[in-house]
Every structure is written in structure tokens, then in C-alpha cells.
Design brief:
InterPro entries: YcjX-like. The radius of gyration is 23 Å and the shape is globular. The chain is an alpha/beta fold and 468 residues long. It has a seven-stranded mixed sheet. It is built from 16 helices and ten strands. It starts with a helix and ends with a helix. The protein has helices at residues 3-12, 39-52, 60-63, 85-93, 139-143, 145-148, 152-163, 170-178, 187-206, 245-267, 281-287, 289-305, 312-318, 341-358, 414-418, 456-464, and strands at residues 26-33, 67-73, 107-115, 128-136, 274-279, 325-330, 365-370, 377-384, 387-395, 402-405. The structure holds guanosine-5'-diphosphate. Guanosine-5'-diphosphate is lined by residues 33, 35-41, 99-100, 102-103, 331-332, 334-335, 372-374, 376, 438.
């Protein structure tokens, strides 16, 4: 964004802008990631820390003392749900801290920052205001982009190929194989297929797989039970007659693309300036080599969404605008002792590089990082069979008891984790990782002491520091 860009946008949104000054710049920050990646916790902690400014030393505007105030304001889009910041913060910071309810759909929050101008003119020009419009949306919706350029037949073939040898998909695969798409449509049959496929998608997500389309099957919101969500991949049919199951499923798939996927990209995605993609990389690594391979493919698909040049459908939906910075961040890094953070970051960097290569990506500036938006653990070094072991300790969610864990080692060379992917791939983090379900740590009540985190301020500096 140049001033001219912002101006155009201001004029377009003139109806929505209530009382704000014409030239106050807006940064629209997209926060996405698959379900449970950590979006809600990220946004809540980011906003709390910006309002407090206590733990944001790596955000230049804060360390230079230029942030005079940070406060919430009514958001510009009147028809989008508001991100429920107060409820989420209350959950995380109560006397018995809990994790907040996760993202189910798109929502928005406006944080406004009053800034003392930096540089030569800082002394003479008065304070200015920058609005940070945070847009939270499920990463599952982003994956639906791949549907736009695929026909029902192509998508069906691709999904069935991908999932054919996954044990989780056995039920659905046998149903799909025994279904003759070239028979007359019976609604109960369509519903059974859709329900069975949805059950597979949920199980696949649970097991750490990320190639779960259509995204709204997992997070349907008010579309639950509607025809646009009542289809499933079927074995391709050459000449399915009118009125058959196959033709109706194809019609619903097309309706899903037209009435669900396209409006999201056109109305919301197209307006994002900066994007953070949160990734539960540790969860995928723990789930095993297949989930990691799937994650790397998914990251390439996600990057594809930010490379409109290649996809003419997307170019026209986005009206020529594009995101100029993307951060891929591995979340929940507080599960690892800091001595292992470089390995996790190296894995994210390798995945990002790989995704860029695969997506033949040219465009936004990208970076990789590992962070914890809300740090739930402290570090300790313990003696174990005569060796020093670096562990993390936290309060267990279920019992409330303190416990220390050693989640296992990550390889120092990310290729040992990423390259093999097929036979003989090694398993990492298979030790105690599955028991590490920590509750958020009780917060200090000292003013200016926002929620504890790891590298949240660095993430903020990369994402919007240059605009403050
Ligand atoms: P969303 O579905 O992307 O909105 O994910 P959430 O923000 O709700 O996070 C999902 C879960 O991940 C939370 O309930 C926590 O259990 C865990 N989590 C998220 N962020 C952190 C973090 O910084 N540290 C730890 N230890 N756990 C986290």
C-alpha cells in the first residue's frame, strides 16, 4: 500500500468509515491457519500485548517509545462478526485460566495505534493514528481455492487418489466404490455420502492431515445441512445422465464454488495486506511422516492463494490487489526447550522454501518463525541417567498438576524430517509429546505485563512494524 491505494480503499469503504479521518492508514492483517493451529490465542495475546506494550521489545515502534496509545475501536465492516476479544482474554486470564473457544468462522477486530512520528519530522508533526484491522479466518477456507480451478470430476479423482490408502478413509472409500453415480438421485443416499465423507474429514484433521476439502464441511457455520454442503467425491463418470446422483453432486459442487468459495475470496481475502499463516508444525511432526508430507503440500497450496498471477480466476476475483508480506509461524513453541527452537525454525524455513519452490512463487516477502502466543511452560534442566536433559514444565489441563516433559529431539538437519517422506521416514517427537496438554499459566497482574509469549513481538515487527 501506497497512500493512493489506501485512498482508493477509503473511498470504496466510505460508507463504512464512520468518523475516521480521511488519511488515517489502515493495515489489514489476515490471521489464518488450520483449525487448532492457534489463531484465537494469537490474536488475543497480540492485542493484549499491544494494549499493554509491556512485552513487545522487538516491535520497533514500542522499543522506540513511539506508541502513545493502543485501543479498540468499532471495526469498519458492519456485517462481519466481531472477534470476541474480551471473552477470549477473560478465559485466558481468569483465576483458573483456560484456553479460549477456537475460531469457527471469519471475524474481525480493529485495534488503533496512536503513534508519535519517527524520523526527521517526528518532532514537528503531531501524533498520527494507524488502524490495524485483524481478520481471523479458518485456513480450511483457503484450501478451497484449489477447487476453483478444478471441475467436480477432477477434484473427485484427486481426493480419491490421495485418500485411497489412508486407513481412516476405509469406510468412505468402500462406500464410494460401491456407489454407482449413474443412478437416479435419492436424497438419503447423497446425505449418507456427505456425512460419511465429512466424518472422514474430521478424522483426518484429528490425525494431523491438512488436505481436507471442502473446508466448510469441517466448519459449516450456518450452511450446515444445506445442499451446497451435501456432496462428496465420487468415482468419475463419463456420461452420467441428467437427474443422476453424479450430476446432482456435480451441480452442488459448482454451487459451492460459486456461492461459498468465490464470495469469500472476492469480499474478504482480496482486501488483506499482510498475512500470518499459523501452523501446528509440532502436532504434524508428532503425528508422523505422512502428516508432515501432507503439511508441506498444503503449505504450497496456501502459498498458491497468494500468487494470483498464475491463476486467472483468482486474479479477477482479487481485482489486482495482493498481499505484500506473509509469515509462516510454527505455534506452541513453548512445548520445546529454547535450545530446540532453532531446529523448529529451520524446519519451518525449509517448509516455506519448499512451498515457494513448488508454488513457483514470486510476489510477497515471506518469512518463517517459531513462536508461542501464550507461553504455558517454564524451562528446567534435569539430571537423567547421568545426562542433563532440557525439559519444559507446566500445569496439566486435566489434573491441574505441575508436570515436566521431554518431548524428544528434533533433527538439526530439517531434511532428515522432510526429505524422506516416503519409506523409512523417521518418526520424531514420539516420546512424551502426546501428554503435553498444558493449561495457560496464571498471569502476572502487574500493569504493563501482557500475556507471556515467545517471539510474538518479532512476528508483529515483521508483519506490520514497517507501517508504524
Ligand atoms: P484456532 O482453532 O486456530 O483458533 O486455535 P486456538 O487459538 O483456539 O488454539 C488451539 C489450541 O492450541 C489451544 O486451545 C491450546 O491448547 C493450544 N495453543 C494455542 N496457542 C498456544 C501456545 O502459545 N502455547 C501452548 N502451549 N498451547 C497453545
Amino acid at each position: 500500500g501506497t497512500i493512493a491505494d489506501n485512498l482508493t480503499r477509503r473511498v470504496e469503504n466510505a460508507g463504512a468509515a464512520v468518523s475516521e479521518t480521511f488519511f488515517e492508514p489502515v493495515v489489514r492483517l489476515g490471521v489464518t491457519g488450520l483449525s487448532r493451529a492457534g489463531k484465537t490465542v494469537f490474536i488475543t495475546s497480540l492485542v493484549a500485548n499491544l494494549i499493554d506494550r509491556g512485552r513487545m521489545a522487538q516491535l520497533a515502534a514500542v522499543s522506540q517509545g513511539r506508541v502513545l496509545a493502543a485501543f479498540l475501536q468499532p471495526q469498519p465492516d458492519d456485517t462481519l462478526p466481531r472477534f470476541d476479544y474480551e471473552t477470549h482474554l477473560a478465559a485466558m486470564t481468569g483465576s483458573d485460566p483456560q484456553w479460549p473457544e477456537s475460531t469457527r468462522a471469519i471475524s474481525e477486530l480493529r485495534l488503533s495505534l496512536r503513534l508519535r512520528s519517527g524520523g526527521l519530522l517526528g518532532g514537528i508533526s503531531g501524533p498520527r493514528t494507524v488502524h490495524l484491522d485483524i481478520v481471523d479466518y479458518p485456513g480450511e477456507w483457503l484450501l478451497d481455492l484449489s477447487l476453483l480451478s478444478r471441475s467436480y470430476s477432477e477434484w473427485s479423482q484427486q481426493m480419491l487418489d490421495r485418500i485411497a490408502d489412508r486407513p481412516l478413509a476405509r469406510d468412505f472409500m468402500s462406500l464410494a466404490r460401491e456407489t454407482d453415480g449413474n443412478t437416479k438421485l435419492e436424497e438419503p443416499q447423497a446425505q449418507a455420502l456427505a456425512q460419511n465423507y465429512t466424518a472422514y474429514l474430521h478424522a483426518a484433521r484429528e490425525a494431523g492431515f491438512s488436505d481436507c476439502t471442502p473446508g466448510r464441511f469441517l466448519l459449516p457455520g450456518d450452511l450446515a445441512g444445506s445442499p451446497v454442503l451435501t456432496f462428496a467425491p465420487l468415482l468419475p463418470q463419463d456420461k452420467a445422465a441428467r437427474g443422476t446422483l453424479w450430476r446432482e453432486m456435480e451441480r452442488r459442487y459448482d454451487a459451492y464454488k460459486r456461492q461459498v468459495v468465490r464470495p469469500f475470496f472476492r469480499d474478504h481475502f482480496s482486501r488483506i495486506d499482510r498475512q500470518v499463516v499459523l501452523v501446528d508444525a509440532l502436532g504434524a511432526i508428532h503425528a508422523g511422516p505422512k502428516a508432515v508430507e501432507d503439511l508441506r503440500r498444503t503449505m504450497a497450496e496456501v502459498l498458491g492463494a497468494f500468487r494470483p498471477g498464475r491463476n486467472s480466476m483468482l486474479t479477477s476475483l482479487l481485482g489486482g490487489k495482493r498481499v505484500d508480506k506473509i509469515l509462516f509461524a510454527a505455534t506452541k513453541a513453548d512445548h520445546l526447550h529454547h535450545t530446540q527452537h532453532p531446529q523448529l525454525t529451520a524446519i519451518m524455513e525449509a517448509l516455506t522454501r519448499d512451498a515457494r519452490d513448488r508454488a513457483d512463487f514470486a510476489g510477497a516477502e515471506t518469512a518463517a518463525m517459531s513462536l508461542a502466543a501464550l507461553r504455558a511452560t517454564v524451562e528446567e534442566t534435569r539430571e537423567h541417567s547421568g545426562k542433563a536433559l532440557n525439559v519444559v514444565r507446566g500445569r496439566l489441563l486435566e489434573t491441574g498438576k505441575q508436570a515436566a516433559f521431554y518431548p524428544g529431539e528434533l533433527p538439526s538437519d530439517p531434511n532428515r524430517l522432510l526429505a524422506p517422506a516416503r519409506e523409512g521416514a523417521e518418526q520424531w517427537l514420539d516420546a512424551e509429546y502426546s501428554f503435553m496438554k498444558f493449561a495457560p499459566a496464571p498471569l502476572s497482574t502487574r500493569p504493563g505485563d501482557g500475556p507471556p509469549h515467545i517471539r510474538l513481538d518479532r512476528a508483529a515487527q515483521f508483519l506490520f512494524g514497517d507501517r508504524l
